[in-house]
Amino acid sequence: MSNTEVAPQEILCEADETRSGVELLVPRQVPLGGPRAMDVRRTLPQRQRSLIGAWCFLDHYGPDRVGDSGGMKVPRHPHTGLQTVSWLFTGEIEHRDSAGFHAAVRPGEVNLMTAGRGISHSEFSTPDTTVLHGAQLWVALPDTARHMAPTFEHYRPEPVSGRGWTLRVFLGALRGSVSPVTTHTPLLGAELLLDPGAELTLETDASFEHGLLVDSGSLVLEGHPVPKDNLAYLPVGHGSLTLSAGSDGARVLLIGGEPLGEKIVMWWNFVGRSHEEIVAYRAQWQSEIGAEVVAAPAAGTGGSSDLRFGPFPPGQPAALPAPALPNARIKPRG
Q1: Backbone dihedral angles phi then psi of residue 295, each to the nearest 5 degrees
Q2: Which of 14, 130, 222, 257 is deepest in the core (most CB within 10 A)?
Q3: Is the dihedral of CA 204, 210, 216, 218 positive or negative?
Q4: Is 291 left (phi over 0), alpha (psi -120 to 50) or beta?
């Protein structure tokens, strides 16, 4: 998914840190573009918090009736230095990228695209999708991996169930479920369904930071109510997480990871390490789409060595141009 904000360097949300150590990150509405744009609720990054582990971006959307919102229509756009993680609850999205991968994003199946040194991709909800509901997340790659060749992975985790709960681990490991999807820093990503009134204590890695996004229902985390659509943050040092669902149950996304330990520069769809890198990425993208490159590589080849963002199949909608750079230098976060 592309960040389609006109001024993507601005982070406008506030965070609320409570006595219990749970910090609430309140979402802000961001349109995906167009007169009938589908809105997303962005909880990461924010002014007070740019990263949870290596997780650097979280957009939460729906349930949206595609006939009213127009669905997801995000033409080809670039990424560097990150991994995109797509997770759906309802609907279907068609993914196409410049490394030659063409895939369907479906509920309960994670699609992870590693941008590495550079990739471009498009995302469109399918014609038969009537309701679209899910989340798009980004992971910042560490310096050791951010210049790697782009690639793509797909995985459908088997659910793990207990009394009043069901867990699907799509990244990392939890409750005996281990995802084979490649990560370059220690990470956790999972969907958790709680029945009405259910309580659950999860044994977690105390070296991880954690975030819990409440998608539906009502939840109490470590004794603190977390409103729907909010992202609750817990710092390192928690060897367990205790969750309780209200009378309407709850569905939550759980993310976590070891603190990245690196400063990143993040602007629009690019993650780098300096203002100068971001300027160069933008210039390269504008140059490549201006040249109207249309040849497609074979799947899994990593794209052309001459083009940072790769060639793209012909007959696709026009690529998104990059917004104007800010007047000031883009500051590192983390």
Answers
A1: -70, 145
A2: 257
A3: positive
A4: alpha
Whole-angstrom distance, CA of residue 75 vs CA of residue 293: 15
CA angle 195, 196, 198 (to 5 degrees): 65
Strands 224-226 and 187-194: unpaired
For residue 226, the cross-strand partners are 219
What span, in angstroms and rounded, lies between the C-alpha atoms of 141 and 137? 13
Give the pTM: 0.91
d(Cα 93, Cα 124) in Å, to the nearest integer?
Answer: 5
DSSP string covering 229-270: T-EEEE-TT-SEEEEEEEEEEEEEEEEEE----S-BEEETTE
Please report which helix (H) or strand (E) contains residue 225, including its range.
strand 224-226
pLDDT tens-place values along the chain, 334 residues long: 556 554 554 333 333 343 348 999 999 999 876 555 678 999 999 988 999 999 999 999 999 999 988 889 999 999 999 999 999 999 999 999 999 999 999 999 999 999 999 999 999 999 999 999 999 999 999 999 999 999 999 999 999 999 999 999 999 999 999 999 999 999 999 999 999 999 999 999 999 999 999 999 999 999 999 999 999 999 999 999 999 999 999 999 999 999 999 999 999 999 999 999 999 999 999 999 987 544 445 555 554 457 899 899 888 999 999 999 999 999 998 7
Are 319 and 77 in contact by the 8 Å Cβ rule? The answer is: yes
How far is it, in rounded angstroms, from Cα 243 to Cα 79?
Answer: 35
